[in-house]
Amino acid sequence: MTAQDSATRTGPVAVTGGTLLAIAGVLAFSLTFPATVWGLESFGPWSLVAIRGVLAALIAGGFLLALRVPFPERRHWGAFAVVASGVVLGFPMLTTLALGTSTTAHAAVVVGLLPLSTAAFSALRTGRRPSRTFWGAAFAGAAVVLAFTLQQSGGAVSTGDLYLFGALLVCAAGYTEGGRLARLMPGWHVIGWALVACLPLNLVVSAVALSFEPVRLTAQGVTGLVWVAAGSTFFGLYVWYRGMAAIGVEKASQLQLAQPLLTLVWSVLLLGERPATAAPLAAVAVLLCIAVTQRARA
Fold it and tell me: What is the CA radius of gyration of the chain?
C-alpha cells in the first residue's frame, strides 16, 4: 500500500500524521544553517558538504542493506537524479558557499522563499492547480520574506544571495520530484537511494577537498558536521518526504514558511547573533500566511 493509498483510507488521521511529520522535517531543517556555521569552524565548504554526503549515504545505505530494500525501478531513475542533484548536492553546496559571506539570519530569510518555489514547481510538474486563496497567501508570505531580506541587505542583492536563489531553484525541483516518489515508496527510500547514488562523487570530492582545505577539529565543528549529515540530510528529509506524501507537496511546502523564523531563534541561541528588529513582525505575518494556506483547498 502506497503512502497515497494510506492517506486516502485513513482520512483526517493520515493528514494529521503527515502534518506532524512535515513539521518534524521543518524543525530538523531549521537547525541546518547554524550547524553548517559550526561545521565551517573545522572544515572548508567543499570538504564539509562532501563529507556530509558521505556520512549520510553510509547511514542510509546501512538501513537499505539491513532491510533488504530493492533497487529502484529504472523508470524512476530520472526522478531520483533530480532529487540527488537538487537536495543532496546542489542545495547543501550553494547554501554552504552562501554562508561564507552571509549571516545565518540573512540566509534563513532568503530560503524562506522555498515554499513558493516548491509549490510553483509542483503545480507545473503535476498539472494540479491550487486555489486562488492558496496562491494569494503563498505570494504574501513570499513577499514578506523578500521585503525582510532586502531591508536587511540595504536593498542590494549580494553574491551570497545569488547562491541562495540558485539553491532555492534546485531544492524546489528536488522536493517536488521527491514528493512524487514518496507517494510510491517510503520517504526514507527516496532520500536513501538518492544519497547512495551520490556516494561515489562525494568520496572523490572529499579526497580532493581535504587535500586543499585545512581541517581544524573542534567540538562544535564535529557536532555541526554530524547534525547536517544525520539530522538534516537523513532524518529531516525522511520525515519531510513522508509528510509531503500524506498531505501534498503544496501544503507541506507552506509549512516551511516557519523555517526561517525558527532558524533566527537558533541563530540567537546557538550562534549569538542579534535578531533584526523587524523579525517579530515578519514572524506574525508569515505564520498568518501559513494558517491561510493550510486551510485553503489545493
Answer: 18
